Amino acid sequence: MSIGHSFGGLFVMDALLEKPELFNSYISIHPSMCWDNKKLFTTYKNTDLADNKYKNKFLYLGIANTLKKE
């Protein structure tokens, strides 16, 4: 299980998308997903989460409504 908050949460998201075999469960609490000009979104926007490499993986993503609209 990998758990992180803020930049730790960003690590959790990146680990899930880049190396999903590392953990079975991922908990990302208010990840800094806008860091580096939203690199996480641009890098993985075409990722197919139905791919078998994500099978039997659990993600809890906690995000507050404190983000600014851009």
Task: Give descriptors for this structure.
20% strand; 70 residues; three-stranded parallel beta sheet; globular; AB_hydrolase_fold; hydrolase activity, acting on ester bonds; hydrolase; 2 helices; 31% helix; alpha/beta; Siderophore_Hydrolase_D
Helix and strand topology:
Layout lengths: L1 E4 L1 H12 L6 E5 L5 H10 L13 E5 L8
Parallel strand pairs: 1-2, 2-3
Short structural summary:
Strand 1 (2-5), helix 1 and strand 2 form a beta-alpha-beta unit.
Structure description:
With 70 residues, this protein is an alpha/beta fold. It has one domain. The protein is 31% helix and 20% strand. Strands 1-2-3 form a three-stranded parallel sheet, covered by helices on one side. The chain is globular. 13% of the residues are buried. GO terms for molecular function: hydrolase activity, acting on ester bonds.
